[in-house]
Amino acid sequence: MTDKTILVVDDSRVSRMMVKSMIGELKPGAKIIEAEDAEDALKLLESHSVDYFSVDLNMPGMNGLELIEKLKPDNTNSKFALLTANIQEATHKHCQSLGVACINKPITEESVTQMLEYFYE
Amino acid sequence: MQTASSKILSNSVLDIINSAVIIIDAKLNINTWNNWFTTRSGLEPSEHTGKNIFDLFPDLKSTRVSDAIDNALSFGFPSVISNMFTPTPFPLYSVINFEEDKNFDDRIQQSISVARLNIDNEYYCLIQISDVTASVLRERTLEQQISERKLVEDALLKSEVKHRTIMETMVDGLIVFDNHGLIESLNPAAEVLFGQEEVDLLGCTIFPLFQELSEFNEEADLHDMFLMENFLGKSQEVLALHKDDHTFPVELSISEMQIGENIHYSALIRDITERKKIENLKNDFIATVSHELRTPLTSIRGSLSLVCGGVVPEISDKALELVELANRNCDRLLLLINDILDMEKISSGKMQFNLETFDLASLLKNIIKSNIAYAEQYAVELVFNDNKNKIYVSVDEHRFSQVISNVLSNAAKFSSKNGQVDIKMEKQDDQARISIRDHGLGIPAEFKDKIWKKFTQVDSSNTRKIGGTGLGLAISRSLIEAMHGNIDFDSEENKGTTFYITLPIVQEN
Amino acid sequence: MNNPTLLLSELEEDLLKELFNIGIGKAAATLSRMIGQEILLSVPDVTFQRSELLLTNFSEKNSIASISQSLKGKFSGEAVLLFPENSSLEVVKLLLGSRYSDEMLADLKQEALVEIGNIVLNACVGAVAQAMNGDFTLDIPNYNLASSSEILNTYNINPNDPILLINIDLRLHESNVKGYLAFIFGPMSINSLHETLKQLIATLHPTSK
């Protein structure tokens, strides 16, 4: 199985560290790149191709859902997961209509496993 | 588990308290509940022990209650669930209408608290439910009373909104104040006029805003003061004071209103700075033009006088007649121009008054003497009633004569032939009062105010017959007022007119 | 005690902010379910400050409404949710406005605020507890309305004591209300908190900067 590239977008450095660390344990072959906000993510995409996106909802500037909406058309073969502690009815519906996974924060082994299962299924 | 619940229930407190108590274990299964819950739910604990609480009460899934239970069991944190956000989560009903068909609306109003219990080293979750229906009902009745009152308030408010809109958009300034002069509201136009914001002036008195009112204070009886100064229902030209200390001319009128038991005043303020500017321009223009006219006119008159005086003996009688007519009209024109120039001087404050003290009686006698010839033209006699009073006044002789002559000539003009004009003077407190009475045509009521204005004629047809420019009274008033006096009249149509001129009495010096 | 604002490293502050974001996020989810509308709660800032600086966030004229719960465990102290009084009424109106008249809301404001405080405090302390695998106990919530000069007394705070101050932004429809979460710790507790944070970061990043 070829090594996949996973882009982790989160304004919290600690969060990125946690996700990276856990993915590292559960899927050691995966290549992980990080972005601290939407702008950063878009820039990275100019020079990298990404298979899976792990996107935090609550970010300054463009939020996670807006970023996913922007990226989806050009990345039809990629999968997206939205990470948030605040899962409300509206958020759920939005994720469903976009066809992306909604993963609950805090970032635990459980939630990361759930996300990876979604990516690699 | 049975041990735990019987331990709890053996404490019969649970069954005397006036609320429901449910106990579930760490796996969310029902352990037991108390009698209160049984009677309000119609469910026997023995029939449901061991069932998952969310299977038994599916309404509770994903609600505040389930979060609270989770918080309690996972962390041991207590929760309060107020009636406001979650009014009826459990299917509990009032004991009274229990037998009837129950639906959601019949549920009792609930207020819940959730906590964790540690019994025999096992965690349990305690859910306590109180019935708050009574207080909610009481609040609902209160709410209805309040909403009815609101309907009334709304109706009142609508009319207030209408008035408010007018207040907000009108161009003139409007200030509402109470009977102590304290400002209650200021419309946007007034804010702009005075360069102030409503918030800064609320509760301050209105008096400092106008030069003419600055002497007033909160103790004053505003009704009387306004009446005396002629602000009530009439407009007066006053000087308003802007926030940056400059004054500007405005027209101010004040109306009184009674709202309930309280008297309020509203002041309407119209900025007349522009109008005044234009008036001044107009006056300047008139003065300039008149000045320019005077010079050639004087030389025309000069030539005509010489001819009338006989400097051209060869002139025919017919020609002389025509020249005399031209001369007379030149005189009239010159008089008019002089009057116009005088008016301009007075209104721009440039007129010089040379005030001296005079014995009023002798002064009057002199003036009357100089007007006898004029009155004879109309076959009118001027009679002075000398009551031998020694009164002294301080006036400019030339200007005072001008005023008295003006009044005398009007009296003579408008008297009937062979009539008489009575002149007398008397003392009234600290004022000297001169009255000049004719028995002529009288001044119609509708002209009473207009007569003081420039260029008004009572009847222009009369003027053509009698002659006169109509400027006289306006000037006379200005002149007398400049000498600290007053001029006014009483009149009855076809009976006569009496003019009153008052001046302050001074000491002989 | 040295200047508390130097206590936290960038990573430590980031971690705390993320924890509170999670806690607040859960609180938002609960509140949103309760009122059936979308609410956004976010944590723009987390800082350690001298407690007297808390007052700079409130105008002297207005009173401060606060809901507090006593916290005991690895670190102990008081967890408090604070709003300027007029904001507190605004929050209640925003969440319940359609159901109740203004007069009723004014009467029932305290009850509503206690529950809101309870939800937020439970969620935040819960997020922290979960991350640290710690056991904490929380007491039932208390409501207080005090002027800004009295508020330090109400919570027995010395002006020089450090508090953990978290700014909270509540957004519903087009309205935006600002509130504050304050954690008042005893001196031992601050050290304990700091140690725990350091350990957590170490597990993530063995060579922490």
Tell me what you see in this structure.
The complex is a heterotrimer of chains A (121), B (509) and C (209). With 121 residues, chain A is of the alpha/beta class. Chain A contains 5 helices and 5 strands, in the order βαβαβαβαβα. In chain A, helix 1 packs across helix 5. In chain A, 42% of the residues are buried. By secondary structure, chain B is α+β, with helices and mostly antiparallel strands. Chain B has 5 domains: 2-131, Beta-Lactamase (2-Layer Sandwich); 136-165; 170-271, PAS domain (Beta-Lactamase); 276-347; 356-504, Histidine kinase-like ATPase, C-terminal domain (Heat Shock Protein 90, 2-Layer Sandwich), CATH 3.30.565.10. Chain B contains 16 helices and 17 strands. In chain B, the strands form 4 sheets. In chain B, strands 2-1-5-4-3 form a 5-stranded antiparallel beta sheet, sandwiched between helices. In chain B, strands 7-6-10-9-8 form a 5-stranded antiparallel beta sheet. In chain B, helix 11 (273-308) packs antiparallel against helix 12 (317-347) and helix 12 (317-347) crosses helix 16 (472-482). In chain B, 25% of the residues are buried. The model of chain B is unreliable at 5-10 and 457-469 (pLDDT under 50). In chain C, a hairpin with a 2-residue loop joins strand 6 (162-172) and strand 7. With 209 residues, chain C is an alpha+beta fold. In chain C, strands 1, 2, 3, 4, 5, 6 and 7 form a 7-stranded antiparallel beta sheet that branches. Chain C has a single domain (4-204), classed as 3-Layer(aba) Sandwich (Chemotaxis protein chec).
